[in-house]
Amino acid sequence: MVFQSVKTLFSKVANAIVLCVFFASPGVSKTTVSDARLGTHPGLTRLVLDVDQIVPYKIFTLSAPYRVVVDFPALKWSVAKKDRRRGAGVVSSYRYGLFQAGISRLVIDVKEPVAIARHKFLPINSLGKHRFLIDLKIITKQAYRASKKSFQSPGWVKPIDPTVVRRGAPPSAEIPKPKPRQTRNRMRVIMLDPGHGGPDPGAIGVGGLREKVVTMRAAKEVRRLLKSTGRYRVFLTRNKDTYVPLRRRYQLAEKVRAELFISIHADSHKNRRIRGASVYTLSEKSSDREAAALAARENRSDVIAGVDLSRQSDTVASILIGLRQRQTMNESAIFGEVLIDELARDIRVLRNTHRFAGFAVLKSPDTPSVLMELGYLSSVGDERMFRTKGFYKKLAKSIYRSVERYFQRKTALNRS
User: Fold this and answer.
1) How confident is the model over 381-409, as pLDDT tens digits?
2) Which domains does the chain have, with CATH numbers?
3) Integer-rounded Cα radius of gyration of the chain
4) Where would I find the beta strands (DSSP E) of 57-157?
5) What is the pLDDT of residue 82?
6) CA separation for the pair 219, 204 (Å, rounded)
7) pLDDT tens-digit map of 88-107
């Protein structure tokens, strides 16, 4: 009996060491998730992932709205049957993607408060696959408040919180320090923000095209053209399919002392006949109901990606706009008008093109910022357009001309 206990303990320790090594070793290839499926059992809803090897993980639950979040080391998702993401039991939907460098995230939306009834890797099956299993059990709100909300496997290494930007921290490796602004013929600094990413796909087109793919493709083409002139230093808030919290996005722009912040999106609308681009700038009072609704959807990105906002200050949700930010808002509106004018020369735009709303991602007090919607993925025509190289080249030229006009104006005002 004692020998068996020692043997079991040794096995657990060895397993933990293997998991730690796997998690920490950059040379190990990504684990592949080949299938994901939901099922219901008496009193339980079960989600199972087929993976080719065991990895460490962490699970936590969130409320307002209720979600279950599972973090893994970076995974390769090769799930062919996408229709299996539809809900079952207490699960309304689920999504996954790269949350930050080295961390993949699975976010499970649930209709009611749940407890984690069971979580484990099952023994390898006849197909040579390991299976990660998580069972969810419906509980009352009162029981949820008293329940354990975090679980982790042996070998889990706590990742750095991506929502925290420490005072005095150096810029990330992707963002070198900008040159001093005093230089006479200095290069202008621009931050492009491809919306959504990772476990937050954004809008999904009628043909399956995802907003996060469209925004990245657009941002890279705009960056290519602007950098080719030799007059601009251009950065992206994300360079791959990963999630960046809203606050972090505009803080990255402030960190490199960007003179313009352009957030790129592609919306969806219940009316599939609506097409065309639009531009939004910050205002605490929305220009119309549709602008307010769009801002509300975009501001939920952190929730969609499974970010815990319970310990965040209310800076993003409600900001006191001082004189400094009012000046920034005025500059944002000026660039917005120029951008609309240039977009209309090359691509379809909406009638009521320049709108105002309380977008969290635009709330930098120092950097003039706009959010542009390239069109509507709910439109067959717009989605077809987003799949063509020609659209992105036209878009890049429009934004380039807008940027040129904006900075020419600033230079002329500084000389006067």
Assistant:
1) 999 999 999 999 999 999 999 999 999 99
2) 30-152 (2.60.40.3500), 188-415 (3.40.630.40)
3) 24
4) 58-62, 67-73, 75-77, 86-88, 91-100, 103-110, 114-122, 130-138, 150-152
5) 58
6) 18
7) 899 999 989 999 888 999 99
